[in-house]
Input
Amino acid sequence: MLGKIRLIGKVMLVLSGVCFLLSMGVGSFAKETKGLVIYLSPNQFDEFQTTASMFIRKYVEDAGYEYKEMVAGNEDVVLQLSQLENAIVLNPVGIIIAACDASAIVVGIEKARGKGIPVIVFDRTIKETEVDFSSVAGCKRIGILAAGEIARLLKEKYGEVKGTVLSIMGDPGDMYTVLIEEGFQETMAKYPNVEITTKIAYGWEASKAADITDDWLVAHPDTDLLFPHAEHMAAAITSVLETRGYKKGQIIHVSTAGMPMGLDLVREGWLQATVEQPLTAQAKGVAMFLDDVISKKKIETGKYTVMGFESELVMQPYGPELRIPGSVITLENVDDPKFWGNQVGK
Output
C-alpha cells in the first residue's frame, strides 16, 4: 500500500511539472522568431507554385520568421479573399500574396494595411492599390524576350519574320500573363507579316489550353507557332500535337516559366524555346527586403544582385518593385544548373 502511495506521489509530481511548463508556454522552449509571416498561394497544381512555396518557406524561415501558408484551392478567388480575412485576424507581422485575381484582392489588401500589416506581392503584380513591396520577374520583359526568340525562329524557318502565331494566355486576372502578352505584342508589332491570334485559358487550366489548340488546328492546320504562356499548358498542348500526328518542331512551340517539365520538353524537342521565370531569385528577393518592409524602413531604389541575377528596384505608383530578369532557354543551354527547373524535381 505504501508503494502505491509513493508511486501516485511521483506521478502527481510529474504532472505538476508538466502543468508548470505548460503555464510557462510551450513557446518558451521553441526557437524564438521575429513573428509570423503568412503566404497566400494561388494553387499547388503546377511545379512553379509548389516550388515557390518551398523556397518562400525556406527563405522566410532562414530570415528568422515563423511561416504559415494558405492555398486558394485551384485559383479560387473567393477562397483567397476569405483566407486573407483569416490571415488578418492572426495579426501577422507580414503577409505575402500571389493573387488569384489582382483586382479582386484589392479590398483585402487595403484592410490589412489599414491594420498596420505590411503586404508583400510575390510574382503576380498588383497595380490597383498600394502595397509595401513587390518581387516580380519583370513579366513584360519575359514577353519581350519570348517575342525576340519567336521572331528568330520564324526567320530561321522562312528567311524573314512572317507566319501565323497562336498565343494562349493564362487567366487575365493574373498580371503575369497580361504583362507577358503586352511585351510580346509590343515587340511583335514591328513585324507586319506575322499574324497573331490570342486566346485565353481561364484559370490557367491546361485542359482548356489543350482544347483551344485542338479547335484551332482544325481550322488552321498549317499554323507556324504556338505560344502558351506557361509550360504546364505546353505539356497538354504537346499531347494534342502528338495525337494529331504532328512531328516535333513541325509547329514551332515556345513557352515560359522554366519548370522541370518545361526543360524536359525542350530536351525532347517539343519546345523549341522557353523563357525562365527566375523563381528562386524572386523568393530570395522577398527575404532580402523582409526586415526592412516589416520595420517600415525606406527601401532604396537602384541596382541589386539577387542570386547572381542583376536586378533593379524601382518605385512604382503602387510601391517599391524588385524586378528580376528572365533567361531564354533552348536546347543549347537547357542543362545549365542556374535554372531553377534543374535544381528541383530530380
Q: What stands out?
A: DSSP finds eleven helices and 14 strands in the chain. Residues 1-29 have pLDDT under 50 and may be disordered. Residues 2-24 form the longest helix (23 residues). The CA atoms of residues 135 and 322 lie 5 Å apart.
